[in-house]
């Protein structure tokens, strides 16, 4: 735990050091252009992936059996966009690694809790949490003097 905290504290300095090295190699103007371009590319990735990622995650959850990889894979574009928006070369390298088309590993399937599955349960406990009853919908009446005409 202490090592993780030290890495977390050293990360901004590592990003600044990488930017200083890049500026020394290619020049300050090109480094500034790199930072601005990676920020805009990251913003575009995050903007374009939010709805698609959420829909994919919802579809995988609806199936009942969810692999860890299939649950986290749509979020990789969003994380890559966030890493590109952070100024620095280290985060850009991690973002580019996330954007590579890696083949999906065969991870163990995770069974969701039975309450989240649709349809009849295989063990016959279909109506376990159902409370039967009747209800009547009552709409409140608005006085006639409060109507907009």
Automatic annotation (TrEMBL):
Keywords: Membrane, Transmembrane, Transmembrane helix. Residues 118-149 are annotated as: Disordered. It holds the Pfam family FxsA. The chain crosses the membrane at residues 33-61, 73-100. Coiled coil: none annotated. NCBIfam families: PRK11463.1-2. This is FxsA family protein. It comes from Vogesella oryzagri.
């Amino acid at each position: 735990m202490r090592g993780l905290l030290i890495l977390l504290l050293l990360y901004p300095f590592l990003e600044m050091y990488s930017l200083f090295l890049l500026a020394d190699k290619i020049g300050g103007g090109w480094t500034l252009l790199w930072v601005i371009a990676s920020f805009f590319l990251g913003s575009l990735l995050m903007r374009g992936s939010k709805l698609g990622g959420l829909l994919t995650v919802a579809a995988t959850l609806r199936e009942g059996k969810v692999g860890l990889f299939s649950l986290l894979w749509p979020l990789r574009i969003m994380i890559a966009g966030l890493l590109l928006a952070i100024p620095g070369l280290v985060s850009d390298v991690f973002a580019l690694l996330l954007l590579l088309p890696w083949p999906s590993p065969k991870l163990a399937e995770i069974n969701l809790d039975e309450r989240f599955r649709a349809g009849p349960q295989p063990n016959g406990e279909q109506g376990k949490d159902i409370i039967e009853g009747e209800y009547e919908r009552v709409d409140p009446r608005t006085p006639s003097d409060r109507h907009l005409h």
